[in-house]
Amino acid sequence: MHPPSSMTPVVQQPDAVTAPITPRSFDQVIASYQPVIGLETHIELGTRTKMFCGCAAAFGDEPNTNICPVCLGLPGALPVANAAAVESAILIGLALNCSIASWCRFARKNYFYPDMPKNFQISQYDEPLCFDGWLDVRLPGGSVDEDIDGRVDGNANGSADQPSSVRIEIERVHMEEDTGKSLHVGGATGRIHGATHSLVDYNRAGIPLVEIVTKPITGTGERAPEVARAYATQLRDLIRALGVSDVRMEQGSMRCDVNTSLQPIGASEWGTRTETKNVNSLRSVERAVRSEMCRQAGVLDAGIRIVQETRHFHEDTGQTTSGRSKEEATDYRYFPEPDLVPLAPETAWVDSLRERLPELPAEKLARLQAEWGLAEKDMAAVLGADAVQLIAATIAAGATAEAARKWWLGELARRANSDGVELEGLAITPKQVAEVQQLVDRGSLNDKLARQVIEGVLAGEGEPSQVVAARGLEVVSDTDTLGAAVDAAIAANADVAQKVRDGKVAAAGALVGAVMKTTKGQADAQTVRTLILERLSAS
Amino acid sequence: MTEFIKLPAAELAGLVADGTASARDITQAHLDRITSTDERLNAFVTVDAEGALATADAVDARRAAGEQLPALAGVPIAVKDIVVTNGIETTAASKILRGWIPPYDATIVTKLRAAGLVPLGKTNLDEFAMGSSTENSAFGPSHNPWDLARTPGGSSGGSSAAVAAYQAPLAIGTDTGGSIRQPASLTGIVGHKPTYGGVSRSGLVAYASSLDQAGPFGRTVLDTALLHEVIAGHDPADSTSLDAPVPAVADAARVGANGDLTGMTIGVVSNLSGEGYEPGVVSVIAATVAQLEQMGAKVVECACPHFDYALAAYYLIAPSECSSNLARFDAMRYGLRVGDDRQASLEAVMAGTRDAGFGAEVKRRIIIGTYALSAGYYDAYYGQAQKVRTLISRDFATAFSGCDVLVSPTSPIVAFELGPRAEDPMAMYAVDLCTLPASLAGVPAISVPCGLSGGLPVGLQIMAPVLADDRCYRVAAAVEASLNSPVLATAPQL
Lengths: 539, 494
Fold this sequence. Notes:
The complex is a heterodimer of chains A (539) and B (494). Chain A is an alpha+beta fold and 539 residues long. Chain A is built from 17 helices and 15 strands. In chain A, β12, α4 and β13 (309-313) form a beta-alpha-beta unit. In chain B, β10 (445-453) and β11 (456-463) form a beta hairpin. Chain B has 17 helices and eleven strands. Classes of the chains: A alpha+beta (539), B alpha/beta (494). Chain A binds chain B through residues 9, 69, 72-81, 108, 110, 112, 114, 117-120, 197-198, 200, 331, 333-335, 338-341, and chain B through 83-84, 90, 92, 97, 100, 102-104, 106, 201-206, 208-210, 236-240, 320-321, 323-324, 327-328, 330, 332-334, 342, 346-347, 350, 370, 373-375, 378, 382.
């Protein structure tokens, strides 16, 4: 229930399982087990100052410049809670449909690690600020198995037009301070193992964190990995909409730890869980659940028990490796923080915050879906690709909803997938996509050329207009030039031309292909076709 | 010179204010006194003569410029070495912090400086304020000016010895379970533990956060009250600091000096007597209570049954908090570092440093506290102790519904000999019996000298409700006025 932060001292232990175990395929896992997952998400709040002192809560500054006696834990220094951070945490709680505690305390979580200046972290223990909430998460399209005891709603009848959504129960939202950041120098891996020395940057120490803990998520079956990803994505969108954090996983301002366990089908008890850390992207959330499910099934099928432990996800291999065993659980000796007074948010204040809640993603999605005229299935696909903001921005830059959706879910999604990045990570902006589409709309580009322009932009060749100029990708619209090419193609393929004259219009495709070849694709295929048919019917 | 060191702070400030004496001369007189006596007393860990004289000169310059000086401007003061001082080594009398030069001032030090007081240096204490005799100091014990073979009390024993020996007219102490009041009692001076939250804790090296309070020492009740008013008040840097007006303690001291307690009801805590209380102490206290009655107070007996559990509760709560507060001393950022040969593991350096840097009593309390907070033991120890704490607060509330103040001996015994008791932790803990309840309940309590037993001073403890510190001072001033001559005047000359 109360996991260590990622900075808990790591006592290296060998994998409990030393013999090689073959992971099961995902289908094999699903045939024998039900997964139970849970997510613990840390959000770095975007407050101007730190949680308990006046230092700037800034990212990327010179190491150890945003520090003071309080966040360095110097003797005698005392914490004072940042009201803006408390407010942000309450906003998150309200947006997650939580109850807000009328009285709660901070607690000290005691453990030794050099990046924690006081050797205790100020956190919350059995009195979280927000508790018992939920978030309804929309899933990408497709049917949902019927044997999932009603937890995934909306699509049990298999109708492809219905979205499926799952209600994720939120156990708690609590506040804590971040630790400093260790840099292990001299080893090959950047891990403490093998390092010659370590450096600590305390700029991050004391930055306000909110930890959002789900209740165990059961009954999602084969969709567990995508449920995890959808939750993380939509939680991120929710928090971004609140404006209380920039929620960037790659910068660590949003960090997901994923708990996974397997329950043999028919068994009444849940299996032993593992906690996977170092999950640094939304895509990895899904991959981590999937790979951990496969690994655990392999272990269980070999007749070996699962060790309760922290595991590290590796972006490159998509696998997890053993971190620290929790068999002998660290005792954090939580007790109420005596240096801080209890938090007692007044009802009137909480109510005023509730009124300040902006349009939340769920409402916004419904609005956008209507504005864009999308079917449920198409909207689900947009959500699944995490493309809502990108499409909205592309539309704002001048593209039609249909075109914007087509680019982001088509060509660009393929590119992101093959490059192994998120759509957002592609080196192209919504404005550039809109610009390409405008060139298409004006007839300056055909689809094939437009894809080449996109490729050029992604390759860093500049703005779409620059790529068009540099690559010479303008559509050939000069009818004389085209006419010559058409005549040449007819002459070179007399037998085909004769078939067309004989009424086999479909055979014209070969002639079109020949013209496109000689014009290096820079002709509009429809125009070419028209010219061919004109000439062959006229003769 | 001698005239300066024997004068109360209020008078010294008057001399500076009207130009009769310079702050520099007054400061120099006290520095000379330290030089001539501290080899025997060991009251100071650090003497900052240069800084003190510079501060004194600044006060003299302010006066010369025609500035209106604050109440205690130009008066020297000794500061317990657990209070963080910018640029001056702060050790908490521990090897683990030796050599640490803080980059900031405690709020109370900022207030002292703003008020023109002249810090002479840092005084000795039991390591991290854990002890009742200064014998747990890494720098050796301080000695009681009444009898150099005896303790000046603890943990603020360096401060009490300094004031009692005329090294300084005023001092700052800290009190977690009695560490101001007991040393005041054992050296024949006045010491007050303010209401919890009355004085900022920002810049006190923390021992037990929910109990620690800084407070004033003086040779007179009025001096102590004047210093109280300098250091008290809300501090935004300390969340537990109370946002309430500072009680008018100096006025209360002046009123009390009239010796009229008509209309006051004083409760004598029946539980703070009996076995373990020296007969000499008991009879001096009884005589003092009779005197209070003569001054017009109504005296009643008060039973506070849960005070009997204060010692047990305190020695769970304070060690629990200390086990966490002292975790930061790990060799990583400041202070001692042992065994870092570039091969040893992080854990080995941390453990080696803490083993070498902490004394036996500090280790004992860290271990007790770590145990008491452990999963499976928390409810039985820390949790139970917190319940006892609540019951003690209720005892106070019940008592204060019928009394204005409660009184008891400050210490069951007079100053004891250095040495034997230090071998027996339980015997040492028992010395705190009378002072612990007020600490656990966060109520203010003062110790005022009220007589001698076997030639050694006895202190009366006066406890009042939260933020009624003024009542402590009023009654203390009445006790002071009732004595034919100040207790301290009968102390042997060093």
